[in-house]
Design brief:
The chain is mainly alpha-helical. The chain has a domain of 63 residues. It has three helices and two strands.
Length: 185
């Protein structure tokens, strides 16, 4: 009922255009409140576009609902899925979730049958995430192995330099002591 009422009101609602939107590209058509002292739109003069007002709003019961009438529940971890009602609630994945956690959440959603609002196809999204996650994991392993190999190579190089220095020191003849004539002992 409330959704139908909201849809009827939205049909009647005009597209709110800012003042002087017809005067060029620099203004654009996005609504901004007119603040000029003699602005005709602010003064609600005849022949000017309508301004937003509380009468154009949706009914209180319909606010925050999707077009299908579902309430959005923000989910950032798997535990948030426990109290969701599948009949009148939908999941909205939070933006800052990492791939690992997103995979866990989507798998749980897939098994429970909850609708995800900001993911079109859960199966294809899961496949993409798993694939990219595995690729990054392999790349990270390669990077760590390369770093270990470089460290080992540097350590071997340092050891060989130390050995060369020791060998040179052993081979160096001791300097001869030159005694001066007439020097008393």
């Amino acid at each position: 009922m409330t959704l139908e009422l909201r849809n009827k009101r939205k049909l009647k609602k005009p597209g709110f255009v800012r003042a002087d939107a017809n005067k060029g590209k620099k203004f654009g058509s996005k609504w901004t409140k007119p603040r000029g002292l003699q602005n005709k739109l602010r003064l609600n003069k005849k022949g000017n576009p309508r301004s937003p007002s509380p009468g154009y709003g949706s009914p209180k019961l319909a606010k925050g609902l999707t077009r299908d009438g579902l309430k959005l529940v923000r989910v950032s971890k798997v535990d948030d899925l426990s109290g969701i009602n599948t009949k009148n609630e939908a999941v909205l994945l939070v933006k800052g979730i990492g791939a690992k956690r997103k995979i866990e959440i989507l798998e749980r959603v897939k098994s429970s049958g909850v609708r995800v609002f900001n993911v079109k196809d859960v199966n294809s999204c899961l496949e993409k995430l798993k694939k990219s996650f595995d690729e990054r994991k392999k790349a990270k392993k390669k990077k760590i192995e390369a770093k270990k190999a470089a460290e080992k190579k540097a350590a071997d190089k340092k050891k060989s330099k130390d050995k060369e220095i020791e060998v040179k020191e052993e081979k160096k003849p001791e300097p001869k002591k030159v005694e001066k004539k007439g020097a008393k002992k």
